[in-house]
Design a protein that fits this description.
Layout lengths: L2 H11 L9 H10 L4 H8 L3 H7 L7 H22 L7 H4 L37 H12 L10 E9 L6 E6 L1
Antiparallel strand pairs: 1-2
Length: 175
């Protein structure tokens, strides 16, 4: 292979980055679909904090950028379908499938079995006795937001993990 062939091969593999909407629109698209950062992160194979970074102005690169752009494009299309005026739907979509008509009475949301920030019962050995304050702190973190109004999402862990700050047992994780 000559030097020019190597250069041509390199140029053939170069890809142009997929354009992304601005950071605020990325967050709005996700929130309008009622999706959490954790849900988006899981399907993209990244952490929820990475998705938060993308919604704060950082940009993904490579294959994950293409996947994220695909998600955002699909989210935008889904929202446009929802907000399109009646009668603009395609003929195949105009007829609503049976059983999907809107209910005549509003449906009340079910109450959660246990609030996320609820203190846990202490064990017989008192292991969890000092954790009631920690659970309340996690509930406070859920409502805390930064200057742009983003809200931290608190995930309850099935098994306690080591806290990244103090090393003690953590029962919640901020996404």
């Amino acid at each position: 292979m000559t030097d020019f062939d190597a250069i041509d091969a390199l140029l053939a593999t170069a890809r142009q980055e997929v354009p992304l909407p601005d950071a605020v629109e990325r967050r709005v698209l996700r929130e309008e679909l009622n999706l959490s950062r954790a849900q988006v992160a899981q399907v993209l194979g990244v952490s929820p904090s990475t998705v938060g970074g993308w919604e704060s102005g950082r940009d993904p690169a490579g294959e994950v950028r293409e996947k994220y752009a695909y998600f955002l494009s699909g989210a935008r299309a889904r929202l446009e379908e929802r907000t399109a005026p009646p009668g603009t739907a395609a003929p195949a979509e105009a007829a609503e499938p049976a059983g999907l008509a809107e209910p005549t009475e509003p449906i009340e949301p079910a109450e959660p079995a246990e609030p996320v920030g609820a203190p846990q019962e202490s064990g017989a050995d008192g292991e969890n006795a000092g954790d009631a304050g920690d659970a309340g702190d996690a509930g406070d973190a859920e409502g805390a937001g930064d200057a742009e109004g983003a809200v931290d999402e608190v995930e309850v862990l099935a098994r306690p993990r080591a806290c990244v700050l103090c090393g003690g047992p953590a029962r919640q994780q901020v996404a």
